[in-house]
Amino acid sequence: MIGAIVSAVIIGAIVGALGRLLVPGRQNMSIGLTLIVGIVAALIGTAIAAALGVANTRGINWIEHIIQIVLAVIGVLLVTRMGIGGGRGGRSRGRTTT
């Protein structure tokens, strides 16, 4: 049970980070929200891979990982487009006018 939770967090962090890296531009998302998006994408991706019959393969399961990363990209896009990024606010970049 503990091992499953730890592996879900680790895989979720990796999948979420890869999802953010593949989305162009800057995302205003916190690390925690990236982790949540990655965990959800990993769980749903595993369920989809199991439904397709490609979840249990010998060696590295590339199809399942690709599905998870695609879902993470979609999740990052949804979160950033909805404006619930949870990133740091209050800092402005660029020129200031006075």
Protein topology:
Blueprint: H1 2-22, H2 31-52, H3 62-82
Helix pairs in contact: 1-2, 1-3, 2-3
Structure in words:
This protein is mostly helical. It contains 3 helices and no strands. Helix 1 (2-22) packs across helix 2 (31-52), helix 1 packs across helix 3 (62-82) and helix 2 (31-52) crosses helix 3 (62-82). The protein starts with a helix and ends in a 16-residue tail after the last helix.
Keywords:
98 residues, mainly alpha, 3 helices, globular
Gist of the model:
With 98 residues, the chain is mostly helical.
Outline: globular
Distance between the termini: 58 Å
Low-pLDDT runs of 5+ residues are none
**Helix and strand sequence:** HHH
Average pLDDT over all residues: 81
Fraction of residues in H or I helices: 55-70%
| Biggest β-sheet strands, sense, barrel | none
State the secondary-structure class: mainly alpha
Q: Helical element count?
A: 3
